[in-house]
Amino acid sequence: MATKQTKKAHSDHQNEILENPEVLASSLGRGEAFLKQNSKVLAGVLAAAIILIGGILFFQINTQNQNENAQKEMFQAVYFYEQDSVELALNGDGVNSGFLTIAEEYPRTDAANLANFYIGSIYLSEKKFQEAIDHLEKFSADDYLVQAKAYSLIGDGYLELGNTDEAISQYKKAAENNENKFLTPKYLSKLAVAYEEAGKIQEAITTYGEIEEKYFDSYEFSAARKHKARLEGLAAK
Predict the structure, then answer these.
(1) Which superfamily does 142-237 belong to?
(2) What count of other Cβ atoms lies within 10 Å of the Cβ of residue 97?
(3) Strand, coil or helix: what is 229?
(4) Domain parsing of the chain, residue ranges
(5) SS3 of 140, please?
(6) pLDDT (0 to 100) of residue 107
(7) What pTM, to 2 d.p., does this model score?
(8) How much is the pLDDT for 236?
(9) Could you give the dihedral angle defined by the CA atoms of residues 95, 99, 104 and 105, in that order, rounded to the nearest 10 degrees?
């Protein structure tokens, strides 16, 4: 009963405001007074919101423009890379930028992301293993084939540095990244080698066995069978 009375009183109050000009004027007057008293605060909030929105829009537009410029500069660098002119690919030719400049001057762009992949692969071929790892770890891709390749290259770098635990971790990522009959056997072979390097013979045997069982039509199949038999012989001693 009390609830009904409360609702009725609230309804009567609303009707009074709408029907009585003096009450309505009083209510509006209180609203105006509130705005006047808090005008500086409200203006500050509004200004902050405008600045925030403007900043977000500027960042998005600027990033888009940077990415378009960087993509244009990437064309020549990729050409040099494909021609095995890795020094020009890295540092440019004095007219066109190289991957290093693109990665530094256009951060947060797709072009810089891809440039890090190229830089990492070049450094790996030059036996600059830590530098290769540093750049490859900055790279990420939605394309599972390319991303798996990046994990594998990082694993190569760690294996060369003698860090077998990290090499194993990276090869696992590569092998588990959307398994397929074309590349997964290759990454499993690398994983088995890393296990053997780490002295984890049984894990290496199991990994070679996975290639033998799942990827019998792969290029790696014959080598996997041979190494699995070799390691089983060692384990039996």
Answers:
(1) Tetratricopeptide repeat domain (1.25.40.10)
(2) 23
(3) helix
(4) 142-237
(5) coil
(6) 86
(7) 0.73
(8) 83
(9) 40
pLDDT at 41: 56
Integer-rounded Cα radius of gyration of the chain? 32
Report the alpha-carbon angle 75-81-83, nearest 5: 105
Six-digit token string for 107: 């951060």
Hunting for tokens 């309505």 — which residue is that? 24
Which helix (H) or strand (E) segment holds residue 158: the answer is: helix 144-160
Residue 85 per-residue DSSP state: -
Distance separating alpha carbons of residues 135 and 151, to the nearest angstrom: 12
Sign of CA dihedral 154, 173, 216, 210: positive
pLDDT on residue 39? 61
Q: What is the mean pLDDT of each run of 10 residues along the chain (237 residues)?
A: 48 49 56 60 53 42 61 89 95 93 91 95 97 97 92 98 98 95 96 97 97 95 96 88
Q: Which two tokens stand for residue 122?
A: 């070049």
Q: Which strand (E) or helix (H) includes residue 198?
A: none
pLDDT the model gives residue 36: 61
Q: Say which residue the tokens 């810089």 belong to.
A: 112
- Report the distance separating Cα 190 and Cα 210, nearest Å: 13
DSSP states of 100-133:
HHHHHHSTTSHHHHHHHHHHHHHHHHTT-HHHHH
Helix (H, G, I), strand (E, B) or coil at 164: helix
